[in-house]
Amino acid sequence: MLKTGLHEMNAPAIDRSTFLSTLPASSADRTAALWIVGVSSILFALAVPFAGIALLPVPAFVASYQSALAVSDIITAALLLAQFSVLRTRALLWLSTGYLFTAAAALVHALTFPGLFTPTGLFGAGSQTTVWLYMIWHGVFPLFVLGYAWLKEKDGGPRIRTATSKAIYATVIGVVATMAVFTWVVTAQHDLLPVLLRDGRYTPTMIGVVSFVWSLSFAALVSLWFRRPHSVIDVWLMVVMCAWLFDIALSAIVNVARFDLGFYAGRLYGLCASSFVLGVLLIENVRLQARTVGLVGRLREQSASDRDFYGKRLALYGAVVESSNDAIITKTLDGIITGWNKAAEHLFGYSAAEAVGRSIDIIVPPDRKSEVRSILNRIAGNETIAQHETVRIRKDGRALDVVLNVSPLRSDNGEIIGASKIAHDITEEKQAQEKLRREIEERQRIFETSQDLILVTDGYGNFIQVSPSVKDILGFSPEDLIGHSATEFIHPDDLEKTREEMRAARRGAIKRSFEARYYHYDGHEVSLNWMGTWSEPVRRHFFIGRDLTEKQAAEAQFRQVQKMDSIGQLTGGVAHDFNNVLTVITGTIGILADAVADRPELAAITKLIDDAAERGAQLTKHLLAFARKQPLQPREIDVNALVLEAAKLLHPTLGEQITIVPQLTEDAWPTLVDPGQLSTAVLNLALNARDAMPEGGTLVLETRNIFLDDGYASMNPDVVAGSYVMIAVSDTGSGIPPELIDRVFDPFFTTKEVGKGTGLGLSMVFGFVKQSGGHIKIYSEQGHGTSVKIYLPRSSGVQESEYEVLQNAPITGGDEKILIVEDDALVRQYVVTQVKSLGYTALEAANAAEALTIIDADRGIDLLFTDIIMPGNMNGRQLADEAARRRPDLKTLFTSGYTENAIVHHGRLDSGVLLLAKPYRKTELAKMLRTALAS
Length: 935
Description:
By secondary structure, the chain is α+β, with helices and mostly antiparallel strands.
């Protein structure tokens, strides 16, 4: 009700149903009109036979009739123009103009009527003046009615665009001017007009003119009838036109002369015609006045109700403002505070008495004053400001983070007089957001830099988040796992255990620790130790997996060392005790031999026992060597001289089918070692090589100065980083199967036929090297050969050589992109780490097929660093050839566990091709990478 009342008072709409020109005619309107037309028709029919009866001339009747007619038409025109000033329709303007014209014509007709004011009429009227004025008057009005009929529409028709006052003035001036012209024609030009009235009677010309005028009136009536829908004014205009027709017929057609019955009756019809529309308009105005009075009464009641409503609402608003938790402040456009609620007092520390009347600058930091001016300027421009975050100052000087909502404050007439501001304190929210942001940032950094694998899955085991470390651990990128189920990557044997752990977590176990194997990108298994938990609020599993590969490898290596030590202690103890037994045997066999010297059959048996004892002594010697308990006589020796002497001894032993190639470093360091044991070790290795080359081949004996760095030592716990002299024995034989490579140093382990070997040769070499403080490494590829490298500590007290100076030179790295191809996962990880530490971008592949895929996808690779001997259909040399075919500009650096000389003589590399032999220190790697990139 309130909204409706406000709408009616504040935004009144034009109700077109209150105007006769647009109000649809009701059945009551049509019935009343028909009754009037019917009665008029009957009276007309009764008057026609007597129309020509002459009556007493009464000129005063004409004056009274014309005056009443003019007044009626003027009032009607005024009422129609009033409606026009609201509706602005051309049809109404046209109809009101017709009524103005009839009023003007009636006045001029009365003034020029003979015998009324002067015998011949005013304005120099002649005998034909008034009759022509009568015809003009009765002919022009139907034309205006025709215009109205064709202009009107359901909603009133076309509207004018100019001011209504201008249109009304133009209409009045136009009517006066037109009537002046017609008056001039019928008076001053009287003699030019045809005679319509002679001796008080109508001429035949009059019959023609009046018939035309009557036809115009009839045409106006017909047009009104067919221009539907009919408004109220349309219905009564049709009544007017009927009376108009009766007027013309009685006063100008069926009568005979002036002042006969038809003359008087016709003018009475004309007077009635002028009063029908006026009467309806007056009645409607009375009705509208009554409605207005009722509306005013209702508006007064509504106003009283509104005042009461607004009073209560104002009190409610005041209570809301005072009880609001947000500061509500009002101020003028120049920043003077006019309102200050309790929340503002609490937030900013100023009481309302302290704040009201002062500038808003009391709570604004100095660097924010321009901001306040900008806000007030925008408010003055009728702009509303929402969710504006800024800083304000409390009375005690403490800064507050607030969010402002500012809107214009208006007066009763709508003028913007100030601003209303709501300030919400977000200081704690901002602090919480900043704390949350830091926590998220810290967790993201942990997530991105973690060396462990972090996984987040949904309740069904689908990966939601995967840490970047998955690339180093499993070879996949995070995008390869996200959206996939964990079951695609978990080893089938560990799948059920993983599911059980997840179910236990959902049942409430806080943390779970378990092991499960995942598949690496290249297909091998990776063991991971998992810590997992379940979050019910987000319904997510969180896992942290630690790669156990290195740990398991180290444990296996440690177990191998322990096993070898245990076996060494056992064999050493057995050999020691057996040596004691052999001492007794060999000592007494001589006495026995002397005693039976004269008995050949017993002497032969004694000799057999002596030979067996000698063989037992050699066996215990080997066992003591493996157990590292043999008596050594170390001295500083030249390894090159020892290797050359061994080569001479080996020629007749190995046979002509095996070529022995010494490759000795000229400035090989001296080493402190038992030369006899070293010669025996080289001999054992050469004999093993011979057995691996039954059809013949090449044996390479090589010496080199080597520095084993901390990186290599970390991968081989039994190695102490430092300078070593390497002695390598390499062959082109059948090689050792991968599954046997870790057992070759075990005592009594051999792959030879029964009776072909004891299995103590390599174990003796192993024990001798370890007892001498050295390191032994074996490289082998089935079908390609084997290289055994002995690393003996460099003798102390020797001056630093030129080689060492070169090796200790500053390390130079780069920013190029290097593709590392290595089938051994541990070695590959070690190389990638070293290459990245030199500043290079490192890509990695486990085999040639992966490497070619990466080369095709990345055109920015500068160097291919590949192992030579790899499993699969393509070795490193073939990979380099195919890579060069696809990328002619791609540089290549080879690496291998074989020495450079062994590789070259195996025919696998061309002379001059760059090779970095394993193991190598970081300085050697850096030097060779720069050399290869510059080649």
